[in-house]
């Protein structure tokens, strides 16, 4: 069910990661190169390469990922706000082609990003 990306290997427990949440649909880990005091990745267990490649049948899963992001952000006391980021493709800054959401918080976020 998971892909051969680094995230697929983490899901299969072939590579260690600091897991902060897991359920039947996704896993949440700490980013190994954090860009904020809190930087977590919400990764679906179903390997969708890019958000632009999500299909109508992924609608419930995508909603679940957002709800998990909300719950994990609350558990990490990000009461003053946080940023959710999904990179898509080369120009979008995607480096791992397994859909994932970044939760960034614990500091003021600049605009525009990037």
Automatic annotation (TrEMBL):
<dbReference type="InterPro" id="IPR011146">
    <property type="entry name" value="HIT-like"/>
</dbReference>
<dbReference type="Pfam" id="PF01230">
    <property type="entry name" value="HIT"/>
</dbReference>
<feature type="domain" description="HIT">
    <location>
        <begin position="6"/>
        <end position="114"/>
    </location>
</feature>
<protein>
    <submittedName>
        <fullName>Histidine triad family protein</fullName>
    </submittedName>
</protein>
<feature type="active site" description="Tele-AMP-histidine intermediate">
    <location>
        <position position="100"/>
    </location>
</feature>
<dbReference type="InterPro" id="IPR036265">
    <property type="entry name" value="HIT-like_sf"/>
</dbReference>
<feature type="short sequence motif" description="Histidine triad motif">
    <location>
        <begin position="98"/>
        <end position="102"/>
    </location>
</feature>
<dbReference type="GO" id="GO:0003824">
    <property type="term" value="F:catalytic activity"/>
</dbReference>
<dbReference type="InterPro" id="IPR019808">
    <property type="entry name" value="Histidine_triad_CS"/>
</dbReference>
<dbReference type="InterPro" id="IPR001310">
    <property type="entry name" value="Histidine_triad_HIT"/>
</dbReference>
């Amino acid at each position: 069910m998971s892909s051969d990306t680094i995230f697929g290997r983490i899901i299969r427990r072939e590579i260690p990661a600091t897991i902060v949440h897991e359920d039947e649909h996704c896993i949440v880990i700490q980013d190994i190169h954090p860009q904020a005091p809190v930087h977590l990745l919400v990764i679906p267990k179903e390997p969708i390469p890019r958000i632009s490649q999500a299909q109508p049948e992924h609608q419930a899963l995508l909603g679940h990922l957002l709800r998990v992001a909300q719950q994990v952000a609350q558990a990490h006391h990000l009461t003053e706000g946080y940023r959710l980021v999904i990179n898509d493709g080369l120009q979008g800054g995607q480096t791992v082609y397994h859909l994932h959401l970044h939760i960034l918080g614990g500091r003021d976020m600049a605009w525009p990003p990037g």
